[in-house]
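[READ THE FOLD]
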Amino acid sequence: MKECLINVQTAVIDMNDSNILELVQNCLDEGLTPIEIIEGGLSKGLEGVGERFDAGEYFLAELIMAGEVVTMATTFLQSMMVPGEIGKKGKVLLATVKGDIHEIGKNILGMVLSASGYEVVDIGANASAELILETLKEQKINMVGLSALLTTTVGGIKEVVELLRQAGMRDQTRIAIGGACCSRQLADEMKVDAFGESAVSAVSIFDGFRESLAVS
């Protein structure tokens, strides 16, 4: 891995906002794309922060500070990304499930999906299953990305799936989950369609959703 990406990771883990933009610019100067910097630098740095949180070395304050560093960097990179024709691939609803207030990973995903040609409808954090269902109906959306960082909030995923089933919409809706506490095993348990390990890998997931919906 390039040293410049390691430097970006370290800055995120150390919550260093004083030179994060300079470090990101160094990566750009070395020919890396914004997506590569997000995936190999910022996202990996967030993973390191999450590991320290799980180990009891970091607490909520450190999560917030690291998130602010990543937000600063992604805002800078977003202006340099060549966007696709926004909406040409359809709409995706993004939300962090009820009880969870974390948004950094979801926001990164939204940026990457937008640059890949999706119209992103982001309803924020702590989103109830009822709000998600209402938004899907109103905006005629059939692809959903749910974020959950805390294990105590995974029940919010199950609520969304059940509410869609009760409304007769589950078969026509594709759901992906992501976040620190999510896994392929959890995706199977929650009866959702996919688990995304990263924002970049999630693009192929939603591309696959489009194809499956077109033939279903």
